[in-house]
Design goal:
Blueprint lengths: L1 H18 L11 E4 H10 L1 H9 L8 H23 L6 H17 L7 H22 L3 E11 L3 E13 L1 E8 L9 H25 L5 E6 L11 E5 L3 H27 L10 H6 L7 H6 L1
Parallel strand pairs: 1-3, 4-5
Antiparallel strand pairs: 2-3, 3-4, 5-6
Helix pairs in contact: 2-3, 2-8, 4-5, 4-6, 7-8
C-alpha cells in the first residue's frame, strides 16, 4: 500500500513539473516570405494581398495560376524525361499526351482551365518552346525547381528557382507564363523592375548556398514565343559590381517590406498603393468594394 502511495505521489509531482512552463519568454516563430508570393504581391496591392494571404480568400477565377502551373509542371516533366532517358521530347503528339496527363492530375486538385482557348494557348507555348529552344536549353539544365532558403533576423527568406543551367558557368532561370511587360508604360516598367528583383533574391540565395553568385539570371516570358517577333528573354549579369550592389540593397529593402507586412498584420490595416495597374484593378475580386475602383467608374 505504501508503494502505491509513493508511486501516486511521484506521478503527481511529475504532472506538476511537466505542466509548468519551461520559460516565461514568448518565442515568435519566424515566418517564411517569398519574393513572388509575398513581396511582389504586396507591392502591387497591399489590400489585395491582405485579403488573399491574411484573410484566406481564394481567387474566383484562378486562370493565370492554372496557366502558369501547367506550363511549369510540363517543363519539369520534359527535363525529367531528358535526365532519365537522355532524349529531348520533340513530337507534338507526345508533348500533348504529357500535357493531358498533367491536366488530369491538376483537375483532381480542383484546378482546371477556364476555357478551351486558355488550354490550347498553354499547349502551344510548350510545343513552341520545345521546337525553338529544347535542343539548346534542356540538356544544360542541372536542376529544376531548386528550393533555396536562408534564415534572416526576423523571417525566413525562401525561393524556388525554375531552372539552374550549367552553361560553362551557372545560370538561374525563371519562366513567366505571360507576355513581356511594356517598359514604356509605368505599370510595365514597375513590373519589370520587380521581376528583376526576383532574380536578385534568387541570385543571393544561390550565393548563400553555393558560395558564389551565378553568372547570370534570365527571365523567360513564354507567351512571347507565340509572337512573330517576340522578345522572350530578359537577362541580368551577376558578375558586375553594380548588380551586386543592387542585390545587396534590395535584400535590405526586402527586409523593410517584410516589416511593413508584419505591421499591416498587427494593425489589421491593408492600404491601397499610390499607383496601381489598371489591369490588376479590373481583374480583382474585391474591386466593387474598393473606393479607388468605384471612383474610376
Amino acid at each position: 500500500m505504501e508503494e502505491v502511495e509513493r508511486l501516486i505521489e511521484k506521478l503527481k509531482k511529475y504532472r506538476e513539473r511537466i505542466e509548468r512552463p519551461l520559460t516565461k519568454k514568448k518565442v515568435k516563430l519566424k515566418e517564411r516570405y517569398t519574393i513572388t508570393g509575398d513581396i511582389i504581391s504586396y507591392k502591387i496591392c497591399p489590400r489585395q494581398y491582405g485579403l488573399y494571404k491574411f484573410y484566406g480568400f481564394s481567387p474566383s477565377n484562378p486562370t493565370q495560376e492554372w496557366y502558369g502551373s501547367i506550363i511549369h509542371r510540363l517543363l519539369k516533366r520534359l527535363h525529367t524525361t531528358y535526365r532519365i532517358e537522355k532524349r529531348i521530347v520533340k513530337d507534338e503528339r507526345e508533348i500533348e499526351k504529357l500535357f493531358n496527363l498533367i491536366e488530369i492530375s491538376m483537375e483532381s486538385e480542383g484546378r482546371r482551365a477556364s476555357s478551351p482557348k486558355a488550354r490550347e494557348k498553354a499547349l502551344q507555348v510548350i510545343i513552341t518552346f520545345c521546337k525553338k529552344y529544347g535542343e539548346e536549353l534542356i540538356p544544360k539544365i542541372k536542376e529544376a525547381e531548386l528550393r533555396l532558403l536562408k534564415e534572416m533576423d526576423n523571417y525566413i527568406l525562401y525561393g524556388i528557382v525554375d531552372a539552374v543551367l550549367n552553361n560553362e558557368e551557372y545560370e538561374i532561370w525563371d519562366y513567366k507564363g505571360m507576355e513581356r511587360p511594356d517598359p514604356k508604360k509605368p505599370s510595365g516598367k514597375k513590373k519589370i523592375e520587380l521581376y528583376k528583383k526576383q532574380l536578385f533574391v534568387y541570385g543571393y540565395l544561390f550565393k548563400e548556398r553555393n558560395g558564389n553568385y551565378p553568372k547570370k539570371g534570365v527571365l523567360m516570358f513564354l507567351n512571347e514565343l507565340l509572337k512573330e517577333k517576340g522578345e522572350p528573354f530578359l537577362e541580368i549579369e551577376f558578375d558586375r559590381k553594380e548588380t551586386i550592389r543592387e542585390v545587396e540593397d534590395f535584400i535590405r529593402e526586402f527586409s523593410e517590406i517584410v516589416r511593413e507586412i508584419e505591421k499591416s498584420k498587427e494593425e489589421n490595416r491593408w492600404e491601397l498603393p499610390k499607383e496601381i495597374d489598371e489591369k490588376v484593378c479590373k481583374q480583382c475580386d474585391f474591386k466593387f468594394d474598393c473606393e479607388r475602383f468605384r471612383n474610376s467608374l
